[in-house]
Amino acid sequence: MDSRQQLIDTALEIILKEGIDALRIEVVCERVGVTKGSLYWHFQDRQGLIREALFEQLRRLSAEQIESLDKAIDSGASREEYLLRVAGTLVDPFDTNESEARWQRWEMLATARRDPELRKMMADLQRAHQRYLVDIALKAQQRGILRRDVDPSAVAAAITAIALGSNNLSYLDADGPTPEAWNGLLLVMIDMLFPPS
Questions:
Q1: I need a labelling partner for 163 at 20 to 30 A (CA). Which of 22, 96, 188, 190 fits?
Q2: Buried/exposed code over 111-125 (b: 16+ C-beta within 10 A; e: otherwise)
Q3: Whole-prediction pTM value?
Q4: How far is C-alpha 168 from the geometric centre of its chain's CA atoms?
């Protein structure tokens, strides 16, 4: 692995464990075994390293979701099996690891609002994520899984909105839905996107 990627991975590890404010150039260089000069060869400054690390994290999260959805489309043998597989890949607000990953995405999006360079990177990544999801929706339409009268772009945007918005459930406690109720609603929503039987 090249030193640039090692610097990004190390910075991301620190950010995820301790937060952005804990990132120190000296610590990153020491862990990777490079000089500050080497770090500055790859990144203009600390903020540039942070941008790249956050971008890498969002890229990884997007890739995981896309891979899961793509596998669900390719491996579902029946409508019911496909329905369960897709629902399982969309969002589980009750899974603490998934929830933490979404909070990290929210933090990155919030950071991007104040940083024009990161905003552009995030916008590019969000558009790429949207295009991947649209391609998956088009593939589902071609296989007869997704209704042809729904816009794949709207489906892709809804997937992202539901995923990010689901973190609100962590604030609701007893006022929120049970896992069974939440999953039941997702199944109903996904089922509405299937062609009529």
A1: 22
A2: bbeeeeebeebbeeb
A3: 0.72
A4: 16
pLDDT for residue 108: 75
Domains of the chain: 1-43 (1.10.10.60), 51-192 (1.10.357)
Alpha helix ranges (H) inside the chain: 3-18, 25-32, 36-42, 46-75, 79-90, 96-113, 116-142, 152-165, 179-192
Q: Which long-range contacts (CB under 8 A, 24 or more apart) does 106-111 make?
A: 106/164, 106/167, 108/54, 108/57, 108/58, 111/20, 111/54
pLDDT grade, residue 26 (50/70/90)?
Answer: very high
State the residue for tokens 């790859």.
Answer: 42
Residues in contact with 76: Cβ distance below 8 Å, sequence separation at least 6, in sequence order: 82, 83, 85, 86, 145
Q: Give exposure, 70-93, as e/b (b: 16+ Cβ within 10 Å).
A: bebbeebeeeeebbbbbbebbbbb
d(CA 102, CA 82): 24
Encoded tokens for 16: 């995820």
